[in-house]
Amino acid sequence: MTKDDLTTTRNIGIAAHIDAGKTTTTERILYYSGRVHRMGEVDNGTTQMDWMEQEQERGITITSAATYCTWNGHSINIIDTPGHVDFTVEVERSLRVLDGMVAIFCAVGGVQPQSETVWRQADRYTIPRIAFINKMDRTGADFFHVLDRIRTRLGANPVVLNFPIGAEDTFSGIVDIIRQAGFTYADDEGSKIKQIPVPEHLRATLEDMRATLFEALSDVDDGIADKYLNDATADITEEQIHTALRKATIGNKIVPVLCGSSLKNKGVQKLLDAIVAYLPSPLDVPAVQGIDPKTDETTERKADAGEHTAALAFKIAHDPHVGHLTYIRVYSGCIKSGAKVFNVNKNTKERVTRILRMHANHREQLEELSAGQLGAVVGLKITTTGDTLCSENKKILLENISFPEPVISVAIEPKSVAEMEKMAKSLETLGSEDPTFRVSINEDTGQTIISGMGELHLEIITDRLFREFGVQGKVGRPMVAYKETITRKTRSEGKYIHQTGGRGQYGHVVLEMEPLDPGAGFVWETKVGTVRVPREYWPEARTGVEESLTSGPLAGYPVIDIKVTLVDGSVHEEDSIALAYRIAASIAVRDGMDKARPMLKEPIMNVEIVTPDNCMGDVINDINQRRGRPTSMEPGRGNVQVVRAMIPLSELFGYATDLRSRTQGRATYTMEFAEYREVPEDMQDVLLGKTA
Ligand SMILES: Nc1nc2c(ncn2[C@@H]2O[C@H](COP(=O)(O)OP(=O)(O)OP(=O)(O)O)[C@@H](O)[C@H]2O)c(=O)[nH]1
Ligand SMILES: [Mg+2]
């Protein structure tokens, strides 16, 4: 890829709340760009992007799908992500490797909870973005209300580039602020666009919006600032506006806002124009940073095909035709078909046998992938999600992708003993695709337990297990995935001395354990001299600690939010060996746990309920009954209230049905994981079987 090719490349993600219209918009993008010749519809299961059986049946996206198109001489790689909160990991890993994002909002629903979540994710990765207010044709559509919510709820600086002519069933086109013209659609397909003068009643709005635009651009462009302050905005050229908009968007100073109705084929071409005009190319984003594993120092790689190779594996999938696929983003250098790459995390080389450009579940063979490109490779067997691939003679370790802990589990039982092996193998395959899915064995009952992000997540996994992998078995009822933690700081000692004839085994450590704030996970520190405990045994001690923490003292749940410090220990001149330090550390943990007052922790969910005014009292009472705590209430649009609350997940099973019957089906809710919090003592006793 030449520099010119990179300048005209866009790697973008489409993210939003469930049902906002991401997939529909992507399908329209593919159609208008000439990539496909028939529009796919979510509602009759004919989309290119939602190709999994489960996706087509349910009309929702489950796994992010990559595709590719060209527009105005630019190549656009697009990842369509799912909106359902159970699959948020798909958004996380996509944003990690993309340069820009299109956030889609429903013109009726506005800034819904999951739109806020993906917005915060994009903030974390400082990803420049465009907002597209979709569904302008729906009853209740209100462009300016959503615009206001983007400003207030997301704290963004939205700058309108086009606004609707009409709304709901009179939505007929858009006013382009920059060109100061209206555009309407002469056919249902939205391909024949007609330019019209701006309707008289929208002229004042146009002037307002232009003033806001120039004010925002004045911050990044002195030329525009000058003309704006001197009332000479008529002299500002379209070219100047585009340049300043691009700069401001890439600098994350503003968010361009567009509108349309993807389903009714309006506004999508303008969105494509904006993607090309304002979202960054791989050359516009900062060089990727990583660690040089030799020196532990920060280093970087520029988006340049001539540099040493650096790429990140962000997704594993199993394709029925080509088998194990590893999706990668190449940041620098180039990866060639048939060549070997070095996996830094696994410290080994692997051969890339084929390179593919994916279009949902179709593929096109490529000879190489170079800096700034996304693609899928075949042949990598041990590479997992988050691993760095690079040149062996110039290594770099890119930051891994972080994934949330599963909060819910179910037991699954194969129909017969013969099915057991098949099930275990299939679960392993599913687990390698999905880092938020875990498999474990309950030590007491011998049952296989699968854990994940929510009921839907586990439902899809078991459905795939039965249908795609042909396993026969049954699924238990969902259970909360509890965790354990400690509440008191302790110091404990572990000694492992083993004498058997020849050389003995000696390991000795002293550990300090202390509780951390919710969400902190596991932190390890070493505060010991290398004479007391030689450096080579430190990683062993850590491994021993981590292994012991996978099963807590109360009921065998993983221990979280804990800091363990190696503070002391000793060596034996002849007998000290690595393994003994690992065992000593686990003895110290086991011993320390009991003194550290362990507690159970349970997942707490952020729940947002949209309820009719007159059901509000009932809804709040019910939240309290469920050990929940309302955190805010505000009037929504129409006669509804938006109630936010934090409620333990264990109290939310069956909530959908309950809420429906309480409000005659008029309230809706969404929830997402907030944090793990200690279980009240009396409940804990019940859970641990201490009281009847
Ligand atoms: N009225 C109207 N409906 C739309 C529009 N865009 C999409 N829809 C409908 O909204 C529903 C959801 O559309 P999708 O494109 O699947 O939404 P999504 O954001 O991909 O949903 P998830 O991937 O499941 O999060 C479907 O029934 C679409 O037909 C629109 O512009 N107007
Ligand atoms: Mg979708």
Describe this structure in words.
By secondary structure, the protein is an alpha+beta fold. Helix 13 crosses helix 14 (578-595). 27% of the residues lie in helices and 32% in strands. The model has no long low-confidence stretch (mean pLDDT 92). The strands form 8 sheets. An 8-stranded antiparallel beta sheet has the order 18-17-23-14-15-22-19-20. Strand 2 (65-71) and strand 3 (74-80) form a beta hairpin. It is globular. The chain binds guanosine-5'-triphosphate and magnesium ion. Magnesium ion (MG) binds at residues 22-23, 50, 61, 80. Magnesium ion (MG) is lined by residues 22-23, 50, 61, 80.
Short summary:
The chain has 692 residues and is α+β, with helices and mostly antiparallel strands. The strands form eight sheets. Strands 18-17-23-14-15-22-19-20 form an eight-stranded antiparallel β-sheet. The chain has a seven-stranded mixed β-sheet with strand order 2-3-1-4-5-11-6, sandwiched between helices. Strands 25, 26, 27, 28 and 29 form a five-stranded antiparallel β-sheet that branches.
> Which ions and ligands are bound to the chains?
guanosine-5'-triphosphate, magnesium ion
- CA-to-CA gap between the ends? 69 Å
Give the assembly state of these chains: single chain
Mean pLDDT: 92
Q: Taking Cα atoms only, what radius of gyration do you get, to the nearest Å?
A: 28 Å
Number of helices: 17
Number of strands: 38
| Beta-strand percent range | 25-35%
Task: Summarize the main sheet.
Answer: 8 strands, antiparallel
Helix content: 25-40%
Helix and strand composition category:
alpha+beta
Low-confidence runs of at least 5 consecutive residues:
none
Shape: globular
Strand order of the largest sheet: 18-17-23-14-15-22-19-20
